[in-house]
Amino acid sequence: MVGHAFMGRAHSQAWRSVGPFFGPPLTPVMAALAGRDAVRAAAAARTLGWASSEGDWKQLLHRDDVQIVDICTPGDTHAEIAVAALDAGKHVLCEKPLANSSAEAEAMVAAAERARAKGVRSMVGFNYRRVPAVTLARDLVADGRIGTVRHVRAQYLQDWLTDPEAPFSWRLDRDRAGTGALGDIGAHIIDTAQFVTGHRLVGVSAVMDTFVPERPKPGGGTAAVTVDDAALFIGRTDGGALASFEATRMATGRKNALRIEVSGSSGALSFDLEAMNELWFYDGTEDAETAGFRRIVVTEPVHTYARQWWPPGHLLGYEHTFTHQAADLLTAIAGGTDPSPSFADGLRVQRVLDAVAASAASGAWADVEGSL
Amino acid sequence: MVGHAFMGRAHSQAWRSVGPFFGPPLTPVMAALAGRDAVRAAAAARTLGWASSEGDWKQLLHRDDVQIVDICTPGDTHAEIAVAALDAGKHVLCEKPLANSSAEAEAMVAAAERARAKGVRSMVGFNYRRVPAVTLARDLVADGRIGTVRHVRAQYLQDWLTDPEAPFSWRLDRDRAGTGALGDIGAHIIDTAQFVTGHRLVGVSAVMDTFVPERPKPGGGTAAVTVDDAALFIGRTDGGALASFEATRMATGRKNALRIEVSGSSGALSFDLEAMNELWFYDGTEDAETAGFRRIVVTEPVHTYARQWWPPGHLLGYEHTFTHQAADLLTAIAGGTDPSPSFADGLRVQRVLDAVAASAASGAWADVEGSL
Amino acid sequence: MVGHAFMGRAHSQAWRSVGPFFGPPLTPVMAALAGRDAVRAAAAARTLGWASSEGDWKQLLHRDDVQIVDICTPGDTHAEIAVAALDAGKHVLCEKPLANSSAEAEAMVAAAERARAKGVRSMVGFNYRRVPAVTLARDLVADGRIGTVRHVRAQYLQDWLTDPEAPFSWRLDRDRAGTGALGDIGAHIIDTAQFVTGHRLVGVSAVMDTFVPERPKPGGGTAAVTVDDAALFIGRTDGGALASFEATRMATGRKNALRIEVSGSSGALSFDLEAMNELWFYDGTEDAETAGFRRIVVTEPVHTYARQWWPPGHLLGYEHTFTHQAADLLTAIAGGTDPSPSFADGLRVQRVLDAVAASAASGAWADVEGSL
Amino acid sequence: MVGHAFMGRAHSQAWRSVGPFFGPPLTPVMAALAGRDAVRAAAAARTLGWASSEGDWKQLLHRDDVQIVDICTPGDTHAEIAVAALDAGKHVLCEKPLANSSAEAEAMVAAAERARAKGVRSMVGFNYRRVPAVTLARDLVADGRIGTVRHVRAQYLQDWLTDPEAPFSWRLDRDRAGTGALGDIGAHIIDTAQFVTGHRLVGVSAVMDTFVPERPKPGGGTAAVTVDDAALFIGRTDGGALASFEATRMATGRKNALRIEVSGSSGALSFDLEAMNELWFYDGTEDAETAGFRRIVVTEPVHTYARQWWPPGHLLGYEHTFTHQAADLLTAIAGGTDPSPSFADGLRVQRVLDAVAASAASGAWADVEGSL
What we know:
homotetramer; 372 residues; alpha/beta; Rossmann fold; Dihydrodipicolinate Reductase, domain 2; 9-stranded mixed sheet; 10 helices; globular; oxidoreductase activity (chains A, B, C, D); Gfo/Idh/MocA-like_OxRdtase_N (chains A, B, C, D); Gfo/Idh/MocA_oxidrdct_glycsds (chains A, B, C, D)
């Protein structure tokens, strides 16, 4: 694994938990953790349960005991590491967003294609696809339970930048992060919306803003915020739906509210990550007397992923999604199939991000490249 | 109408609204309002839209332009007025609780029986039966949609006595009110539970308490609170269900939360008067994948009462229940049928109240008289 | 009053109820109801409680017993009636949207100005401003309780056109209704957003669509739907906030969900008309340990409008907003002040509607005329 | 660890996770798993990540590499194992309920006292105390944020026995389980209520029932259900509060709804385990204009336990409570202090269970032994 911050902790817990709960066909061994600083990487390896550590991720590519490279670093490093790892014959799990630009993402997709020909697999970490309630939403749409999708309303609301004194970090630096709310959390709602509906965005109109343009640096002084605090856009999908999206770090009081509501011609679905074990489903074919949005607690033995854990009504948390992701990756590698979401899926999201940024800059509708 | 306080205002609005919205077979004329004080009654008549007023309710019985006597006074006067009115050949609508004791209630039932033989009708004002969501709940139980009822959990939570400085009033005086939370709001949940389930309580075990034994009088000085602030009880029904009840004026933050949840062998229902346009329904026969409590917004054209008002999603409020009550009473009178709930239903509730008080006093299980 | 359909019924109930509950300085007399068809107008007058009727609204202007003209007709007739009534010296209450075009609305504003000079008052019927929870939201923003407004997310979701067999009506005809979801319900969220935040929209980018282009006529045959089923737009306000709006009649399962959420620099508010007695408030100045969105049940004696009705926790319904509107209009007329919202407020909303339509047609950002 | 069923899986995940997330002063090593069947124990050890296994729990007491014995077996074995382990100088974590009778529990408390004198620690596994929202509830009550506690309403609602064809298991056998819903889930709400309020139940009145008296055995045939499906009771606390409790496995549609609401003289709290990351708090000292139940998402850095995991708004799940328990146990052992809840706390719950059963049998109020 490369990186040992927030995502590194989450992925470590996944690798540790996937065996006991999913009994995957391949048993993961937590061989080595790489970081930019050898001392800090070694300490993190001890804390997070990795057998060894490296001060340079390139060392992982030379080790025979490393078959999967799990990339948990900021977006500006994804392309270099992923391409090198795939070319070295290592399976790759890469955090989202896939890259900081479509050009990088295209190079990664090309590397993934080359690797695939040799049986080497790649996957991008849109972990929220594997919230059981989101998986169920996708299944219900695919089964026709809400009819033709007409509307998507998606929001990812956080508030950690509401305070002007919240400190500067790499996530606020365009060179490291690419974009702000857009790429960090907007990428999640774009992917989730496309995953659940099966539609792709073909055009968007957007507005972005930075409400607090300068912030204190942890070590003193200030730094300019060069990314967006918030991005809003509307769009059309290839399936004829109208969609609205909002990604913001300024939604006071909303901590991690990824919300998506999908209206179809005969039903609807609603989800909020702050109540992630629930899916709300409206079945428009029911009698008017008793029709209503149902709160499904997605913890039943029939529910994908949830069935592996606890009895009904015993909730899952945030990091379980990473365990589900690990289980599916291991299953795909063992079975010689391609895991999903692919790097191509990651590129598709990247192109929407590009269109959003372009539209916000021009004030006009922007087509999503490659969508038609 | 007799009385012009809280209930008088609500009933006046009902008599005024029932024509335009329900087009009942009989058109009510708001002929006369009676109160103990002629001057105040006259003022109230002007405000509330009554054509004339009387300083003594007995005068109403002599007036030919009065066919219905609507009793909105404290419970200690119900029996006298109702019996006299019925014996005078006036139809009677009497606020709940029917009386302050079972003895009084029995006399009223006897008067109702006598009157009935002459085509004179009587009804007790358990208005919450006519919340559309409660009516729907009753219908779903009656249609077998939740199977055999096994559990009732009912609460009526208010908080207007939380503050020890909240003033003394007739509602805290045993001589006027009979009991406190028990008869005022406990009566509602008893009736609602029996109405929705079709079961009757056969035995109870109870505890009651007065947390603030003395309160300031509006004019100065203090008075002893001689009724209960809260009454809790558990019980068994004639249908084999277990039930729990709580009526309290000390549930800080709950303003008017009449909540009832009914668990059946194949489904369940849940209601909260603080969200009175909604009924939650769990259909246990659905697939486990999509089963969940549904939030039914009870404002559709198929919903009883609601259909008379506005398009779907346009909410009804508290006083609409009194209009529904008035409509049904007028329809029954015109059709020569008995309106429901009857005085006998009111007596049935009174007997549960008696059993609760007896059990709270004795510390032992108490049977409900007449229930077996 | 002119018109006796949905709005006519709602306004009639308001004129009937405002006296007993608000004791306004002027007591309304329900003198005359006008409709296009004299026979149907007469029948409606009887049902709705009006003393007389007219087959032509122009007759109202000649009657001395008519001081207020309440316009409850489709939008294409508003301008003619309102201008004539104001010029005839009658106070005017006009349903929203003020008109079907900004040109008409401008003429109405001019008439209102002329009338105002003579002490004749005018008001446009954005009744949702007078939901107690919406009034409270406005008050909290004005009092600085959420700091600087940064985000508005507003939706008005209905589903009565989800079914392709839902019949054609005047609301689907551009000549009568002007626009579809946009003017009918989009106008409400635009006004509500501007009212609550005190900001004005200065520019928008929009998309509109008609999912079902042809519908059965009630008498047989089909008709082309010439208005939008749904309109989505994003915008900027003069106060620097980013806003998103969605108005749709295709949100399956949502019956009348006017939702608005406002994020400020130190707090946030959230409201849903399907739970119209509640306002959710997040106070960002609270300790992190106990900060959270509060569900305020807006039925306390301190709450504007609500205090006139019932004790805490006893809910109000949809039509109460019209009674509040009537009370404020009567108070303004009696006090010789201008009621709010004014025709100028109505024009302001109309200009946003125009910008939305223009942007949807052009695919580019559109400025709101007169906003800068 | 002894036992490898549901609780064994949960505890294993806790021992595995406590190191990386809590960095406890002692690092647990998952040395040995014991079960009644050596072959099945060995398989479970491999799956759950234990280094070795034993076919007899007594072997654990002879192993030097075992310092803590974690008892995850049915209640009828708790006393024997716990007493032996403590007397052998092993620290003990014992699942709830502590025992199947007060006599057994008293012997365990005595053993715990003996062991304590030698620095050997014991703890009973009321894991729900360590849901961050429940811990916060306790803290708020202790800090006086809701004033004097007047009401507790506690429910633990499950529905896995609703279906009469749900199979027989040891949990339905009085000899193994002691009681049914009462001891299994009723014990949780009794402990949670006492923990949060700081009050102890002093007397109860109860009713219990078994709705489905016979069930199919997994291997064929049927078995008599000798425990309760549901237990309801009301009670008084030593602090003068009135309380109601319901534990049932027949609450159709409720999967794991441990709900507790506490009303105090100046505030209130509400919690539901089906939304376990949320605590609802009503602060009665707020202005009436904005007072309301707040939904606190208990995932902030100031929140005990939650701070160890993820950023705000990233939810925790069911098994996290066991990790919190493990962390606190290790900290107590390392610090030479007594962990909480103690065996004496477990006995206290057991005595309430006894009083409930006695009252249900007698139909009269029953005092809780040792409570006065």
